[in-house]
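Hi support team,

I've been running sequence recovery on a batch of backbones for a student project. Most finish fine, but this one hangs at about 90% for roughly twenty minutes before it completes. I'm not sure whether the input is malformed or the queue is just slow. I've pasted the structure tokens below so you can try to reproduce it. Let me know if you need the job ID as well.

Thanks,
M.K.
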């Protein structure tokens, strides 16, 4: 155990190439997926919160339900779409980082949309009457409220990133865990533990824990800053 810990510390202290490359790929994939999720999920969640339309209650229930999509099932559906016999097989994306981004974006979008809807709905309860009195459309009201809750939406992005960076099921199914190409921190930890390379697994585990702690600290700091900013206003 002591020898393994010493090797782990040495890997981290010397910025081991395997650790850095695997961590960098994980960051690129998760950040890209969060970006796509924000572009789709924030406007979608805000519109569901602000607009009034038939079936709105069902849409809200669906968003909340999709927050808990099983990653392995999402990976399976993306695999079927991108496989050679699937409708998108000609694109050749299966077992590439792009496929991993798509799978994680599918996981991130409903989570971001559902959290955005709740945040925007709470703010719209106060701003809604005034905005409606100005004759603004639902889309314009959504844009105004999104700007008003921008700090809270940053914490939504951080929450989505925290979930994706530690996800293993979807990226394993569609990425294939190919060494030097689609191997992320979570898939590498699983593989290296089975192979007996515990120092690499632990080093990646420490990096992953550090990222999750940093994300939570950033979210807490933003919440505090937003509370002070709104309190001063």
């Amino acid at each position: 155990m002591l020898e393994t810990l010493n090797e782990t510390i040495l890997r981290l202290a010397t910025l081991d190439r395997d650790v850095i490359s695997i961590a960098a790929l994980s960051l690129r994939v998760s950040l890209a997926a969060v970006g796509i999720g924000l572009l789709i999920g924030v406007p979608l969640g805000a519109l569901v919160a602000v607009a009034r339309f038939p079936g709105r209650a069902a849409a809200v229930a669906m968003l909340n339900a999709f927050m808990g999509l099983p990653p392995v099932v999402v990976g399976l559906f993306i695999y079927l779409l991108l496989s050679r016999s699937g409708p998108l097989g000609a694109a050749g994306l299966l077992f590439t980082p792009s496929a991993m981004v798509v799978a994680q974006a599918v996981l991130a979008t409903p989570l971001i949309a559902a959290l955005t809807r709740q945040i925007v709905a709470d703010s719209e309860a106060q701003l809604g009457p005034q905005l409606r009195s100005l004759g603004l459309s639902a889309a314009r009201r959504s844009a105004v409220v999104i700007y008003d809750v921008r700090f809270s939406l940053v914490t939504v992005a951080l929450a989505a990133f925290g979930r994706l960076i530690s996800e293993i099921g979807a990226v394993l199914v569609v990425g294939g865990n190919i060494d030097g190409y689609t191997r992320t921190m979570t898939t590498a930890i699983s593989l290296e533990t089975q192979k007996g390379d515990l120092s690499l697994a632990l080093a990646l585990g420490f990096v992953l824990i550090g990222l999750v702690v940093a994300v939570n600290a950033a979210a807490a700091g933003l919440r505090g800053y937003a509370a002070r900013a709104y309190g001063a206003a």
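--
Follow-up from support: It reproduced on our side and the slowdown came from queue contention, not your input. The chain has a mean pLDDT of 89. No action needed from you.
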